[in-house]
Amino acid sequence: MKRAACLAILLAQLFAVAAYADALDDLAGLWKAKKRFGPDARGTLLIEKDGDAYIADFAGWRVPLRADGDELTFALPNGAGDFRGKFENGKLRGHWIKAATAGNSDRAVTPVLLAPDGAQRWRGTVAPLEDEFTFYLLLQKRADGTLGALLRNPERDAGTSQYPADHLTRDAANVTLIGKRGGKDVEVSHGTYDAERQVLTFVFAGRGGTYDFEREDDRSEFYPRGKHPARYTYHAPPALDDGWPVATLADAGLSRVAVEQFIQHILELPMEAPDAIQLDGILVARHGKLVLEEYFHGQNRERLHDTRSAAKSLTAVVIGAAMQAGAPLHLDSRVYEVMNAGKFPNDLEPAKKTMTLEHLLTMSSGYFCDDTNDAAPGNEETMTDQTEEPDFYRYTLRVPLVTPPGENSVYCSASPNLALGMLGAATNESPLYAFERLVAAPMKMTRYSWFLDPAGHPYGGGGARVLPRDFLKLGQLMLNGGTWEGKRILSREFAARATSRLYHLRNVYYGYLWWNFDYPYKDRFLQAYAALGAGGQTLTVIPELDLVVGTWAANYGSGSGTREAGTNLIPRLLLPAVLEAGDDPNTSLREHAFKNPYGPSKDGSRVKE
Predict the structure, then answer these.
(1) What is the DSSP letter of 232?
(2) I need a surface site. Which of 43, 213, 340, 551 has the fewest CB within 10 A?
(3) Helix axes 414-427, 311-324, angle to 10 degrees
(4) Following DSSP, what letter does each residue of 297-336 receive, concatenated?
């Protein structure tokens, strides 16, 4: 009897284990959840003049505009959004400030151009950046019987950083995502499974609450171009009315065979690891013409992409363009004098009196603001997380010095942001007007989004969203010595100095918010400069090859995207496709393999001491 009882218990346990395994097997596969948070205020904006007053007709409201000098402004009720604009050559050029949403607490601006539409009326379109949040959940059976879980979020990479799921457990209709922190299991999210509807529901606090996951098939944008992509065949980029002339790879002296192998490599990148490369796009221009334009993971040329810290280089371009246009600002302008209406504050310490715009552009201000040092009061996260001072310019001005200005360079996002503030203070208008008038308009950058600090100032430390083809133009602008389509945007001297080796920073050289390093090419190294942003945002210029390369990716939390672009994609897979005299254009990528006479390089660059 005892043997029978033990056997019955054992069989019951085995059946229970098998049933649990079957219950987990039911959930294996790829799932997706997506939530949209607005904003709802979008569409046609009409502004009419009634006597001496201006009235805005937008989103179901009729709102009077207020004149503040030469600027016209209005705000929708309940904080639904704001408009700022100025008349220019009969048109009303301005910006729409979107409200914060449940999915994104940041305010940001997008451009609005209102053209004449009859007597005393102007019409334009408000198209704010749509706030949305997506989760992919990949559940895979493991050898030990557990159900492995990978959570991925393309907008913020929160699946890697904020919700690092490792496996899923199930108890009837209840499911739990378990992660690993410090070697211990922690609950990432708890939810339910509706077997009849085949819907997994999880709650993510701080990201809009409840998300319903449904199954995805093999064509999912979780993969670069589906789980089983077709063999890649090259097609030249289309000619559009955006200022980019286009050409073929053959016209530009690039091997089509090698480029096709390069793109095929991207299409076949494995997606199952938490730090898998999430490359969203790659664009290449040579000899001033766009020759390669490819997108992945559902991205496209019409979709604004977060440039992260690569936008610091855009800040330098805006400041250089304003100086070229005659703004009362110079590289040796004193920071505290400009920011205090032309005179130094009383009792300002002597060292801060010596700080100049150039110190901010080279991140050599001397502030205790190293972004890699959590103890630094000027650290970007410390500044953006605090709520006592909404004006980030004023906040930075109070940060103490640790070295005299100009002595040492540290990575500090507050410095370029304050540099943009100097432009606003010197011109007595938002730097966004200078950007729109001097950079965006002449370079046909009609769509973008710029993050604002809580006081309403554009943030110059990163995070601007720009169309990929437009952002690539900035690299071509610098390669051209400061011109675009024959129009001078920057002085030749500023463009050259901005991309020079002025300071040694993080094992590479730095100019005016542009990185400078060497890239391996065949049997030698070539000097390159770049705008770089977390997650794989790179805009690289190699003057000797007359080449501009842009990559966009979504590895914001893991950093693997930046490493992949810097150490693999460009020097090891793209540059070998650039042909020299005598090269066979039909040679494969393997036969063009890079020969490094200096041995392997940790970060794809070599710094000359």
Answers:
(1) P
(2) 43
(3) 30
(4) TT--TTS-EE-GGGHHHHHHHHHHHHHHTT-S--TT-BHH
Residue 230 CB contacts under 8 Å (≥ 6 apart), including other chains? none
DSSP 406-446: TS-----THHHHHHHHHHHHHHTS-HHHHHIIIIITTTT--
394 SS3 class:
helix
Rounded to whole angstroms, the maximal C-alpha distance in the chain is 102
- Compute φ and ψ for 70, nearest 5 degrees: -95, 10
The torsion angle over the Cα atoms of residues 398, 399, 402 and 407, rounded to 10 degrees, is -80
Contact (CB, 8 A) for 538 and 519:
no
String of b and e for 95-106 (b: at least 16 CB within 10 Å)?
bbbbbebebbeb
Q: Which residue has the tokens 């432009």?
A: 423
479-489 residue pLDDT tens: 999 999 999 99
Beta bridge partners of residue 284, listed in sequence order = 292, 549
Q: Tokens standing for 208?
A: 């809009």
Smallest CA-to-CA distance from 278 within 96, 389, 150 is with 150
pLDDT at 597 over 70: no
Per the DSSP assignment, residues forming a β-bridge with 108 are 98, 451
Nearest to 264 by CA among 234, 297, 222: 234
Peptide bond into 39 cis (omega under 30): yes
The single residue listed with the structure tokens 């073929």 is: 248
Quick one: residue 341, left, alpha or beta (phi over 0 = left, psi -120 to 50 = alpha)? left
Q: How far apart are CA 368 and CA 609, in angstroms?
A: 25
Length of the chain, in residues:
609
Q: How far is residue 105's CA from residue 454's CA, in Å, rounded to a whole number?
A: 10
d(CA 34, CA 36): 7
Buried b (16+ CB within 10 A) or exposed e, 486-503: eebbbeeebbebbbebbb
Phi, psi angle pair for 194, to nearest 5°? -95, 100
Model's pTM, two decimal places?
A: 0.93
What are the Cα distances from residue 164, in Å, to 136, 205, 301, 557, 585? 12, 14, 30, 11, 45
Q: Which two tokens stand for residue 526?
A: 């070539």
The one-letter amino acid code at 320 reads: G
Q: Across the strands, what pairs with 139?
A: 29, 149
**Is the CA virtual torsion 12, 18, 22, 28 positive or negative?**
positive
pLDDT higher than threshold 70 for residue 166? yes
Which residues is 191 bridged to in the sheet? 175, 202
DSSP state of 173: T
150 close to 127: Cβ distance less than 8 angstroms: no
CA dihedral (495, 500, 503, 506) positive or negative: positive
Helices 468-479 and 311-324, axial angle in degrees (round to 10)? 50
C-alpha count within 13 angstroms, C-beta hemisphere, residue 181? 11
How open is the CA angle 10-12-18, to the nearest 5 degrees?
105
pLDDT at 235: 98
User: pLDDT tens-digit profile of 213-247?
Assistant: 999 999 999 999 999 999 999 999 999 999 999 99
Q: What is the DSSP string of 248-266?
A: -HHHHTB-HHHHHHHHHHH
| Backbone torsion region of residue 535, taken as left when φ is above 0, otherwise alpha when ψ lies between -120 and 50, otherwise beta | left
